Design the sequence.
């Protein structure tokens, strides 16, 4: 593909991504994969270049841009080679007109920037939310050690804070490696490893991962338990939860029981665990503002209404989780969001309604309300809020 054809492809993809975000359709990665599946003439260098241009345009756009062309034009203003690719050639975009609209630029739509401001994030912390994310893996302690993996993977470096984490060059095809296939490693951001470890899982305990999804943290907890004790992994999303069993098998985590819940009927479906768990992890559904580095177009999908619905779900899972904890047991609440509405305020509301519960200090992040926070600018991780809560005896 010529440089002009690559630019045109990025513009078309961005148009599709903007439309999909408005309609709640497929994510950018899926749209990019579909686009190239029907364009076999595009080689791997073309695909990589177009993908990079698409993501650079999304990161720089701020609020939803009027069009893919407006998003790319914003980048072209500071990139002569890109501006030159608007050459009017057969497969390229039309030449740039002087007064054409550009994407506004910035971190996010104005209402979200205001919410981030209110949540105490500085301009630098907000800007880092749309940086590029590093590629982190967690070493499976059931199968090997960090030192052994380091010896096999010469360009890996230990993550600064997570004891089982390694950082790899971006783009490393981890899932095609023998180490991954053999279950020795999992892809997991360092921040996710740190907040997952806040549950302080121990062998022999009875633990619940209430919002397990495909089991990223379930596998981490199972390994920390050394496959001893009981570990219940729940979710309301069948497709996600179904991905857990094969992952657990690959990682050699044998103690997991998966349980699909019906929304609104969680309590009755978990009656056998009521008041019995030593610990409950609540990795709650959230807006994902802390993971914009990986899904920058997610900030175009979020609306105040969606945020309200997420807040209601968070309050619900906190309440369901609390009912599972035994007297004196613990509950760890996590969101991969830096909005106080989803983190600090939720925990404050829980504590106001459950006055006998107390707060403990996790060993990660910066204190924030009753919890702690990790953010890309300060910690180099995805953004998280985590709070450790203790039930009365
Ligand atoms: C942040 S994701 C979990 C990610 C997962 N823990 C991991 O580490 O990969 C939140 C999950 O909560 C689930 N969820 C939403 N409402 C729920 C409910 N009422 N009970 C249990 N899970 C719920 C969603 O389906 C989603 O998979």
Sequence:
């Amino acid at each position: 593909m010529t440089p002009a054809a690559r630019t045109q492809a990025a513009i078309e993809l961005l148009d599709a991504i903007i439309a999909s975000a408005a309609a709640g359709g497929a994510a950018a990665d899926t749209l990019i994969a579909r686009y190239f599946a029907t364009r076999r003439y595009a080689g791997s260098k073309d695909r990589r270049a177009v993908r990079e241009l698409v993501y650079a345009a999304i990161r720089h756009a701020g609020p939803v841009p009027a069009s893919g062309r407006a998003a790319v034009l914003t980048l072209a203003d500071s990139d002569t080679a890109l501006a030159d690719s608007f050459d009017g050639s057969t497969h390229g975009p039309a030449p740039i007109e002087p007064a054409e609209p550009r994407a506004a630029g910035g971190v996010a739509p104005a209402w979200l920037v205001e919410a981030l401001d209110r949540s105490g994030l500085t301009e630098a912390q907000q800007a880092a939310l749309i940086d590029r994310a590093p590629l982190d893996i967690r070493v499976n302690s059931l199968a090997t050690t960090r030192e052994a993996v380091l010896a096999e993977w010469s360009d890996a470096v230990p993550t600064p804070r997570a004891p089982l984490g390694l950082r790899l060059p971006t783009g490393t095809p981890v899932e095609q490696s023998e180490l991954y296939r053999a279950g020795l490693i999992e892809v997991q951001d360092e921040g996710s490893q740190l907040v997952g470890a806040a549950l302080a899982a121990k062998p022999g305990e009875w633990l619940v991962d209430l919002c397990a999804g495909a089991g990223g943290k379930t596998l981490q907890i199972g390994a920390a338990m050394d496959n001893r004790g009981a570990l219940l992994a729940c979710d309301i999303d069948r497709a996600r939860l179904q991905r857990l069993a094969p992952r657990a098998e690959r990682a050699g985590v044998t103690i997991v029981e998966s349980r699909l819940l019906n929304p609104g009927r969680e309590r009755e479906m978990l009656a056998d665990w009521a008041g019995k768990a030593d610990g409950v992890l609540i990795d709650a559904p959230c807006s994902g503002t802390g993971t914009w580095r990986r899904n920058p177009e997610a900030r175009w999908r979020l609306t105040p209404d969606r945020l309200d619905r997420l807040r209601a779900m968070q309050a619900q899972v906190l309440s369901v989780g609390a009912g599972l904890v035994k007297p004196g047991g613990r509950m760890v609440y996590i969101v991969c969001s830096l909005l106080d509405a989803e983190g600090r305020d939720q925990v404050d509301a829980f504590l106001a309604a459950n006055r006998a519960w107390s707060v403990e200090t996790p060993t990660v992040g910066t204190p924030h309300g009753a919890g702690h926070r990790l953010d890309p600018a300060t910690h180099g991780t995805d953004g998280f809020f985590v709070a450790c809560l203790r039930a009365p005896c």
